[in-house]
Amino acid sequence: MKYQIEAKPYGSYDVVVCGGGTAGCFAAIAAAREGAKTLLIERSFTVGGMLTVGEAGITKFSEHCRDVDVYKNEVLDELAKAPAKVQVVRGLAHEYVKRMIDGGTALGTHGEPGSYVFTDKAEAQWGLMQMLKEAGVEVLYDTRAVLVNKKEDTVTGVVVCNKEGFCEIGARVVIDATGDADVAALAGVPFYAGATEEEASAGFAAFAGEMQHFGTMYRVRNLDFARLFDYLKKNPDRFVEHEFGVMSLENVIESYNRGEMCVFRIDLKDWSPVRGSYHVQVYNLPEKDEAILLGPGCGTGKDNSNGLDARILSNAQYTLQKGAYRLTEVLRECVPGFETVRVTYIPDVGVRETRHIAGEYRLTVIDVLSGKDFEDSIACGGHPIDIHPLPKEVEHVDLNHWRFHIPYRVMLPLNVENLLVAGRPISAERGASGATRPTAQCMALGEAAGVAAAMAVKENKTPKTIDMQELRARLVENGAIV
User: Fold this and answer.
1) Which of the two ends of the chain, N or C, has the fewest CB atoms closer than 10 A to its terminal CB?
2) What is the mean pLDDT of residues 101-120?
3) What is the H or E stretch that residue 377 is in?
4) DSSP state, residue 75
5) pTM over 0.85
6) Phi and psi at residue 328, in whole multiples of 5°?
7) Whole-angstrom Cα distance, residue 420 to residue 31?
8) Helices 121-135 and 22-33: crossing angle, nearest 10°?
9) Residues 6+ apart with CB under 8 A from 175
């Protein structure tokens, strides 16, 4: 059926950012600080997305090393002496996180953001709200973009829906930070949903169209870390180094006792709530008895892995909550230190992958693994490729003192002008996106998109025609690493 709607005018802005999550907040702050009249549209009543209500923490600010001793001595310890030497993300993201670390509401490493930073959820949201207000960003909560206005191939604004009904908003530049490229899709930007046939045949997916399974990182309290550490020291086979955090048990205990970030895994072996061995991931928090746990995932297979399907997402929300409670029961019964643990918060379903836009450049796995630099690089990363499955030659590649670069062109969609796409759905191969989608990298991409949008407005150009070297220089001036 066809429906006719009438949208009332809401106003016009230099920059409209759709999505107040990990990338969107920093895009809006960056644009407003550059002098652009900026509106941020957020579908919920909370900003920050995965780094606040999603409980995913903030990762990864530092270079990566596979070897635990090298990582401690040459990366983690270096954060106490010369953090900029080993960090891959600074700028707005660093400013935001340092505020929380210095205020005692986030855990870093030697007072700096390193591999992981976990925060007090409320303080993390309040910190973002303050930065948005200080920058002069107008925020519309409980609002979602439902249509895109275009003049030929140029985006001129969006139509949103909220308590006032449908509202038409003019924009000189729109930034899609929805996480799923919703605005880009509405604008007619070509995209890949999940894995391509070529990626599946190369071993990066089980089948064409596959999307990463859903997950949830949930909060518990009443965890007795001292008792847990004592158990792990007596049963070292139960301790498993975290693949990305790379800390030995000794490192973990030392960091925890210093009031700093630690991350590790516990091998549940025969106690697993799913068949086979299962490693539960544990991340500490500012409150000494609180932790974040990575719950069992769901959403594998052709019929239940589509993060663009409303019914599948709704079913996943129940399945993930059920899995979190089952896992917690197992931990209470089997692992010393967890006896009186209780669940205090389970976030919305965590979606890892949906659309990948087709952009002016498509970041490849080779680009990421080789650390290729680009003339238009506007952000860096240090996170390993977090996509499964992976070809063996990719999964086991040596990554000591490793960083990669992200070019500006991955945020410029094909066939559409005055639109930037920041965050998870940038133009990248599925394997490459497994390294670009973590929160710190999305924050850096958001900052770059915001500065670029403001430059386009100031110079009366499109984001595709601004001087990329001027953009890079402006980002460096603001403290970013490019």
Assistant:
1) N
2) 94
3) strand 377-381
4) I
5) yes
6) -60, -40
7) 12
8) 30
9) 15, 16, 17, 18, 24, 27, 28, 31, 419, 420, 421, 422, 449, 450, 453
Task: List beta partners, residue 281.
Answer: 265
Rounded Cα distance between 11 and 86, Å, is 44
Q: Write down the residue that tokens 């072996």 correspond to.
A: 269
Sorting pLDDT into bands at 50, 70 and 90, what band is 430?
very high
In this structure, the chain runs to a length of 482
- The 10s digit of each residue's pLDDT in 183-228 is 999 999 999 999 999 999 999 999 999 999 999 999 999 999 999 9
Other Cβ atoms within 10 Å of 232 Cβ, number:
21
Distance from the Cα of residue 268 to its chain's centroid: 27
Question: Could you tell me which residues come within 8 angstroms of residue 336 by beta carbon, excluding any fewer than 6 positions away?
Answer: 224, 227, 228, 230, 231
CB neighbour list of residue 45: distance below 8 Å, 6 or more residues apart: 141, 142
CB atoms within 10 A of CB 459: 12
pLDDT of residue 389: 87
